[in-house]
Amino acid sequence: MTTRRRSNCPISFTLDLIGDRWSLLILRDLVFGRARFYRQLLESGEGIATNVLAERLRRLERVGLLSKRRDPDDRKRFIYSLTPKGLDTLPILLEMILWGAKYDPRTAAPPEFVARLRKDRERVLAEVRARAEEK
Amino acid sequence: MTTRRRSNCPISFTLDLIGDRWSLLILRDLVFGRARFYRQLLESGEGIATNVLAERLRRLERVGLLSKRRDPDDRKRFIYSLTPKGLDTLPILLEMILWGAKYDPRTAAPPEFVARLRKDRERVLAEVRARAEEK
DNA sequence: TCTGTTACTTGCAAAAAACAAGTCATAAGA
DNA sequence: TCTTATGACTTGTTTTTTGCAAGTAACAGA
Predict the structure, then answer these.
(1) A18 CA, D16 C1': Å apart
(2) pLDDT at site A72
(3) Model confidence over B69-112: pLDDT tens digits?
(4) Bridge partners for A79 per DSSP
(5) Residue B118 predicted with pLDDT over 90
(6) What is the pLDDT of residue B45?
(7) How many CA atoms lie within 13 A of A29 on its CB side?
(8) What are residue B84's phi and psi, to 5 degrees?
(9) Smallest CA–C1' separation from A20: which nucleotide?
(10) B54 in contact with nucleic chain D (CB within 7 A)
(11) Which residues in chain B are contacts of A24 at CB distance < 8 A?
């Protein structure tokens, strides 16, 4: 992926950083707590290629969305976690959940979560954020 | 771009349809009323290649986010416009504006628009939606 | 020390994007 | 009505990115 910015439009800026087919899925797995290690990210569902994952992690770290540190409990692996800047993409992810759940007849989105999200967006946002932060 | 779905995750579903480097910019130009014709989309800032634009328009039409009709005032051109499904991506675009405006020091996002959006999200959403609908 | 994990890297083929040029259906002007 | 212009693309080619398979290096455990 290229890094060259295309304009000063805020949407374009956002897309230049996370507007590819994988970055937001990586952020999703970190935000919703499904993964913390390389292996988990690699195996979490959609089948990203290992070289692409490595490149994306490097990139997301470089632009400040996530950080990497050695796991003190097992020094051969690394813990990937979101920075505040990375966590701030949560509202974007939540809107994508709402849109996807609305238009995908086969969606796996839990209906009660979606209903709560629609009804009380701020509250759900705060809850997911809090859970993500304590990791 | 491929069309094959990767999973039933709503975020993944959304990204399968609009998670590339151009689709959301096209939607942006249609939502915010900067463009209605092929030429305008082609020249609106970021420099999409003509073959890529053509392919994306075909794709977005096929998945039901936009529609195409001949312009009655000049039958050699076509008017591209959003469907309700396409217009429903607006919340995603607005969150990207907020994120981009927050983290891009060179952002061109009008500060008063961003401030209003932060303060009264629902209202701005309704306004932009209303303006986009009357086209 | 040997074996297994974990996190990658490297090499190559396939797909997609960027770039340049050309086609085709209107429309507008002489 | 012939001629040129415009708008919306298509086609061919090069470059970049992705996907896939295999391999390597650091650390851990027995």
Answers:
(1) 18
(2) 94
(3) 999 999 999 999 999 999 999 999 999 999 999 999 999 999 99
(4) A69
(5) yes
(6) 80
(7) 23
(8) -55, -40
(9) D17
(10) yes
(11) 11, 15, 19
List all residues 6 or more positions away from B36 whose beta carbon is below 8 Å from its beta carbon.
B30, B79, B80, B81, B135
pLDDT at A2 over 80: no
Distance A109 CA to C28 C1' (A): 55
pLDDT above 70 coverage of chain B, percent = 98
Rg (alpha carbons) of chain A, rounded to whole number:
15
Query: What is the pTM (predicted TM-score) of this model?
Result: 0.95
Pick the closest to residue A80 from A6, A10, A27, A125 (CA basis). Answer: A27
Q: How far is B71 from chain A (nearest CA, A)?
A: 29
pLDDT computed for residue A134 by the predictor:
82
Q: What percent of chain B has pLDDT over 90?
A: 90
Q: Are the Cβ atoms of A20 and B20 closer than 8 angstroms?
A: yes
Q: pLDDT tens, A12-24?
A: 999 999 999 999 9
Burial class of residue B112, CB neighbours in 10 A (0-12, 13-18, 19+): exposed
Task: Look up residue A31 and give its amino acid.
Answer: V
Mean per-residue pLDDT over chain A, rounded: 95
Q: Hey, are the CB atoms on B15 and A8 less than 8 Å from each other?
A: no
List chain D nucleotides near protein: any atom < 7 Å from a Cβ.
Answer: 6-12, 16-23, 26-29
Under 8 Å CB pairs connecting chains A and B tally to 133
How many CB atoms lie under 10 A from the CB of residue A34?
A: 12
Q: Which two tokens stand for residue A118?
A: 């629609």
Q: Which domains does chain A have, with CATH numbers?
A: 10-134 (1.10.10.10)
Contact B10 A92 (CB under 8 A): no
Chain A environment of B19 (Cβ under 8 Å): 19-21, 24
Residues 6 or more apart whose CB falls under 8 angstroms from that of B40 comprise B29, B34
